[in-house]
Description:
Elements: H1 2-29, H2 31-77, H3 81-117, H4 123-132, H5 136-148, H6 153-179, H7 184-209, H8 224-265, H9 270-280, H10 283-310, H11 314-351, H12 357-364, H13 367-382, H14 387-411, H15 415-438, H16 447-472, H17 480-504, H18 510-514, H19 517-532
Helix pairs in contact: 1-6, 1-10, 2-3, 2-4, 2-5, 2-6, 2-7, 2-8, 2-9, 3-4, 3-5, 3-8, 4-7, 5-7, 6-7, 8-9, 8-14, 10-11, 10-13, 11-12, 11-13, 11-16, 11-17, 12-15, 13-15, 14-15, 16-17
Amino acid sequence: xxxxxxxxxxxxxxxxxxxxxxxxxxxxxxxxxxxxxxxxxxxxxxxxxxxxxxxxxxxxxxxxxxxxxxxxxxxxxxxxxxxxxxxxxxxxxxxxxxxxxxxxxxxxxxxxxxxxxxxxxxxxxxxxxxxxxxxxxxxxxxxxxxxxxxxxxxxxxxxxxxxxxxxxxxxxxxxxxxxxxxxxxxxxxxxxxxxxxxxxxxxxxxxxxxxxxxxxxxxxxxxxxxxxxxxxxxxxxxxxxxxxxxxxxxxxxxxxxxxxxxxxxxxxxxxxxxxxxxxxxxxxxxxxxxxxxxxxxxxxxxxxxxxxxxxxxxxxxxxxxxxxxxxxxxxxxxxxxxxxxxxxxxxxxxxxxxxxxxxxxxxxxxxxxxxxxxxxxxxxxxxxxxxxxxxxxxxxxxxxxxxxxxxxxxxxxxxxxxxxxxxxxxxxxxxxxxxxxxxxxxxxxxxxxxxxxxxxxxxxxxxxxxxxxxxxxxxxxxxxxxxxxxxxxxxxxxxxxxxxxxxxxxxxxxxxxxxxxxxxxxxxxxxxxxxxx
Length: 533
C-alpha cells in the first residue's frame, strides 16, 4: 500500500510540474497576439503593470503553497493533525493580512506609484492590480493544504484553469475593446480584469476540488506570538523558494520604474518614451520562452542531485550536476544564437514589424547567462545552499538598476536597459559558478562533452547564418509571411542540428544515457532510423 501511495505522489508531482510548464508556455505566448491587437502602446501599458500582477501568480503557486505543504506534511507525519490545522489557519490569516495591506496600499497610493513610474495615466490600472492581491490567501492556502495532503490534482487543475481562462479573457476583452476603438489605457484595464477573471476561476476550481475546507479546529485560540512567529517563517521561506521564479519579474520591475523616467530626463517626449518601452518589452516573452526549457531540465535534476548527495554518492551527484550545466549551456546558447541571428524575421513575424530589432538582439544576449545562472542556482539548491541565489539576485537587481541609470541616459534609448540586463545576468552567473567551485566541485567534469556542446553551437550558428544570408533570405519576400517562413524554416534547421548532435555524438556519455532508460530507447530508435535512411 505504501509503494502505491508513493507512486501516486510521484505521479501527482509530475502532473503538477507538467501543469506548471504548460502554464509558463501559455503565459509567454499570449502576449504575442495581445501585442498584435493592442499595438506597441497598448503593450507598453500592460507591461507597466504586469510585473506587479505576476508577483501574485508566483507567490500563489511557487511560494506560499510549497512552504505550507511542507509544514502540513511534516505535522501529519508525526500524527499532529490539530497542529497542522492550526498552521493552515495561521497561514491563511497571515497571507490575508498581507494581501489586505498591499491592496489598500495600491488603492490609496496608486497615483503616487504612477507618478513614480513616469505615467500618471496608469493610476486606475494600479488600483485594479491591488484588487488582484485579495485572491492570494485562498489560492495559496488551498493549494498548500492539497499538496500537504499529497493531493496534487487541485493545484494542477486550478493553475491550468486559471491561466487558460486568464489568457482567454484577456484576448477576448482586448479584441472587443480594440474593435470599439478603446485607447491603450482602457485596453490595459480590460486586460487586468481578464486576469482577475482567471483568479476567480482558479479559486472556484480549488474550492470545488477541496470542498472548500481549509481546516477544522476545536477550541482554537489565537496566539499572537505563534501567529507572528509562524508567518515570519512562512514569508521568509516562501521568498527564498520562489526567488528564481521571480527574477525576470524583478528585472521587469526595475525597467518599469526607470526606463520611461530616464528617457524623459534626457529630453525624449512622453509618447516616444512610452512607445520605446513598448517595443523593448517585445523581448520579455522571448526571454521567458528561452529560459523555460532550461528551468524545467534543471529542476528535474535537483531531486536526483539532492538524493545522491544525501546517500553520499559523489559520482552520481557530479553526473547530475554536470548534465544540468551542460544542458543549460546547450539550450541557453542555442536560444541566444538563434534569436540573435533570426531576430529580424522573428520580430516581423511575431510583432507585425521590425522595430527595435537591434535592441532585442542585445537583450537576447542575456538568455545565455540567465539560463546558466538558473541551472547553477538549482544545483546550489540541491546542495542546500539556498541563500546563495538570494545574494546573487540581490546583487543582480542592484547591477540592473545601476546599469539602467548609467546606460539609458548615455544611449538615450532602451539599448541601455538591454545592456544592463546582459551585465546583471552575467554577474549573477559568475556568482553561482564561483559558489559551486567554492563547494570543492569541478565545474566542468566531462570536458570532452562540453567541447562537443561548444562545437555544436558554433556549427549551428555558422550554418544558420550561411543558409540565411546566401540561400534562403534572397528568395523570400520582405513581407510578414516571408519573414514567418524564413524564421520557421531556419529555427527548425538550427534545432535539427542540435538534436542530431545530441543523438549521434558523445554530448551525453554512455553512463548518462543509461541513467535515462526511456530516452535511451528513443535515441536508439532515432539512430536506427537515421542509419537506414
